[in-house]
Design brief:
The chain has 751 residues and is an alpha+beta fold. Bound molecules: alpha-D-galactopyranose. Alpha-D-galactopyranose is lined by residues 342, 372-373, 417, 484, 486, 532, 534-535, 551, 554.
């Protein structure tokens, strides 16, 4: 890592701010009438230069101007930091503030600024952080609207050693009147052209975060969630990459919104090819009442600039999320290899069956046994029990404590599944508190998987669940919690809130989720949390602040998983991706894949198993043992190394997927190649590697190569399916969905 610092310069003679860490520059200036005009964002440029020439204005017909008698100064023509609507700009604004007289137009102007070392935290919200003041510098700029008296504080934190800027906004109401915030973008960035491809991660349950791309066009392109969770459909992340950008070269700008609820990320390309990129809470269904003296803090959005392709962008996100978003003991410690009983038993288990799975797990080297759905209340199927976080007496008559003891006696850690935000009507909690579900008076609420959503916008509800969970955590001395969430929100309404605050329910719900996470992680710092939402329905940076790993997808098929993990890796580190080996035929795709490949895919994640090991034959059990030992040997490299995507499963031109991970000191790397269907008379195939030391000598399967060879010529991965069976080629041992991981070990410097 570089040792350059983050600097925030204010050049008074030009009213110009320059944020720079030697790698990236972010520049803007204050106009004569106090508007913040964006100048430049990209690769670092020199300091102490007047960049005002970047403010381009032309006289253009059919537009409007700020000052009478002037035919030049129009905000419509200008790139801005905090754009507003209705004062000569017609693009989407960063704020919409409804006032007593019904107007929603504001005209915020610069008031003052402050530079602080380090980075302040955001109250009640997940955010990146620093551990030493010199890791980042923060610029806070206050703007004021003269008529409403409202104030806006824009926050920019530049990190010293990563090309990352964290942005957020706070709105304050020092006036005597109530104001209503109807829209607030955490980030608004005007880029000078539209020559980008827009990259999003979208999909559905079971195929989350597929990479989808398109060219930007005049007009608006956006992704959003209206489901109350970040969603399977669209991840709160977008990259804009240049048309010639590849995985390893070219420019890319990534935006990740650190939030777990409704979001909107959009790029509006105007008539002069300026691209306005914005990220924030989705204005749809949002309206926040700002009482006199109250303030509203928007969530954080992270901006990453890379001139080293998408891999460069992803590596910056990975380093940030792993080291300065995730917190607590499990941030740095090796995660336990787990076994989860869900696909092994579903609801059909008893203590004996579970202990038998755990015994076998111990034998092969697994560290943690996780009991999934079904252990609580009257939960014998998915129509009852949610909300009752005490043991299911029918299934486990001796209690959770007894099971936990038995598991622990085997030398394993013990974890449990919860779905804290949900309730079934058939539960004690619902019978006592039917008013606690999210519902609209006089309307019948909709269900999802036979369950209803608890109103986490109500502290009383959150407190009840916290107490119930504490009891069971204490009783069974839990080491791990899987926090699930299996349906989107409907019937949005908070019976605990007045009519004027109904637009707050979605956001207050997310704040309630964060509050419960904060309370639990503070009280139980040793418990490892894994988030989940029917697989990857809430795989977002917001939850990574509390839970350093997330169940990536309910689809455990090793072939599908290549796409899901490849897409997820655009933003999220391998250490955050829960990845399990399951049984075949696979329960989601009905596909047969080799155990070897299932292991080779899941190893590039937070690794575990989700099957009954007692049903495997001895040869497979041995392979499982080898997989676990390989993973443990390389876990630190996999989780902390630099990850490079090499061959995309989405492009499909080579019937291959490939990626590699390289240690920070370049002394070791792992290369993985996964094949699709076997083919006959296969073409020769090489893969060009990345991230190695060109001067070093590396050993792969007892043969030596220089780093330069591997990165310029490539490494041969052709397999024996390129031949035909005969005397000289008796048994080409390759098959459909074959795969291989090579260990690349540095042996010294080139002589
Ligand atoms: C969700 C999760 C699964 C499993 C089930 C249990 O679908 O994603 O991993 O925990 O719930 O009901």
């Amino acid at each position: 890592m570089r040792t350059k610092g983050a600097h925030i310069h204010f050049e008074e003679q030009w009213n110009q701010f320059h944020l720079s860490n030697g790698e990236v520059s972010y520049l803007f200036k204050i106009s004569e009438d106090g508007k913040l005009l964006h100048l430049y964002y990209g690769k670092a440029v020199s300091n102490s230069r007047d960049y005002s020439y970047l403010v381009e204005m032309q006289h253009r017909p059919m537009t409007t101007y700020r000052q009478e008698g002037d035919l030049l100064y129009s905000l419509e023509h200008l790139k801005q930091e905090f754009p507003e609507y209705g004062t000569t700009d017609f693009r989407h604004p960063a704020i919409q503030l409804k006032q007593k007289n019904g107007s929603f137009i504001t005209d915020f102007r610069y008031a003052c600024f402050q530079v602080i070392e380090g980075k302040p935290s955001l109250k009640g919200l997940p955010a990146t952080y620093v551990e030493a003041a010199n890791e980042a510098a923060t610029l806070l700029i206050t703007l004021k609207d003269e008529v409403t008296k409202a104030e806006v504080v824009l926050s920019y934190t530049l990190f010293s050693q990563l090309p990352v800027i964290a942005r957020s906004v706070e709105v304050k109401n020092p006036s005597q009147d109530v104001l209503y915030l109807e829209n607030l973008a955490s980030l608004s960035l005007d880029l000078p052209d539209q020559d980008y491809r827009w990259v999003q991660l979208s999909g559905a349950w079971g195929r989350e975060r597929y990479v989808k791309e398109r060219d930007l066009q005049q007009g608006i392109q956006s992704i959003e969630s209206t489901r109350g969770i970040s969603s399977h459909q669209h991840n709160p992340f977008v990259a804009l990459k240049r048309k010639n950008t590849t995985e390893n070269s070219g420019e890319a700008i990534g935006v990740s919104f650190i939030y777990s609820g409704n979001f909107l990320i959009q790029a509006e390309v105007d008539t002069w090819d300026v691209t306005r990129l914005q990220a924030g809470i989705n204005p749809f269904g949002f309206k926040w009442e700002l009482q006199p003296a109250a303030s509203f803090q928007a969530p954080e959005a992270l901006l990453v600039y890379s001139d080293q392709g998408l891999n460069g962008m992803s590596q910056a996100f990975h380093a940030m999320f792993r080291n300065r978003l995730a917190r607590g003991k499990w941030r740095n410690e090796n995660r336990p290899v787990l076994i989860n009983n869900w696909e092994a038993t579903y609801f059909d288990f008893d203590e004996e069956k579970l202990v038998a799975i755990a015994e076998k797990a111990k034998e092969v080297g697994i560290d943690l046994f996780v009991l999934d759905d079904g252990w609580f209340g009257e939960r014998n199927h998915d129509k009852a029990g949610l909300g009752d976080w005490f043991v299911n007496q029918k299934l486990l008559p001796k209690g959770i404590g007894s099971l936990a003891e038995k598991i622990r006696a085997l030398g394993l850690k013990f974890g449990l599944w919860f779905e804290p935000e949900m309730v079934n009507k058939d539960s004690e909690l619902y019978r006592q508190h039917p008013e606690w579900i999210i519902h609209i008076p006089h309307r019948t609420p909709q269900h999802g998987r036979n369950q209803f959503v608890l109103n986490f916008a109500n502290d009383e509800v959150v407190d009840n669940i916290f107490e119930q969970m504490c009891k069971i955590i204490d009783e069974s001395q839990l080491d791990y919690i899987k926090w699930d969430m299996n349906r989107p929100l409907t019937d949005i309404y908070g019976v605990n809130l007045p009519a004027s605050q109904q637009g707050e329910v979605f956001h207050r719900y997310v704040l309630g989720v964060y509050k419960l996470y904060e309370q639990l992680t503070t009280k139980y710092p040793n418990v490892l949390f894994e988030s989940c939402s029917s697989g990857g329905g809430r795989f977002d940076a917001g939850l990574l602040y509390y839970a350093p790993q997330c169940w990536t997808s309910d689809d455990t098929d090793a072939i599908e998983r290549q796409k899901i993990q490849y897409g997820t890796s655009l933003v999220y580190p391998l250490s955050s991706m829960g990845a399990h080996v399951s049984i075949t035929p696979n329960h989601q795709t009905n596909r047969l894949t080799p155990l070897k490949t299932r292991g080779n895919v899941a190893i590039f994640g937070a690794f575990g198993y989700e099957l009954d090991l007692n049903k495997l034959d001895p040869a497979d059990c041995l392979l499982v043992k080898e997989q676990i030992s390989f993973y443990k040997q390389h876990q630190s490299l996999i989780h902390n190394g630099k990850f490079y995507r090499l061959v995309s499963p989405f492009e499909g031109t080579r019937n291959r997927t490939s990626w590699m991970v390289v240690a920070a000191d370049q002394s070791q790397a792992l290369l993985a190649v996964y094949k699709g269907l076997n083919e006959v008379n296969w073409p020769y195939d090489r893969i060009v590697l990345h991230g190695l030391d060109p001067e070093a000598v590396y050993e792969i399967e007892e043969k030596e190569y220089t780093g330069a060879e591997l990165m310029n010529i490539g490494f041969i991965v052709s397999d024996s399916s390129s031949g035909q069976i005969n005397e000289q080629n008796p048994l080409p041992e390759t098959f459909d969905f074959d795969s291989k991981i090579w260990v690349i070990q540095k042996r010294g410097e080139r002589k």
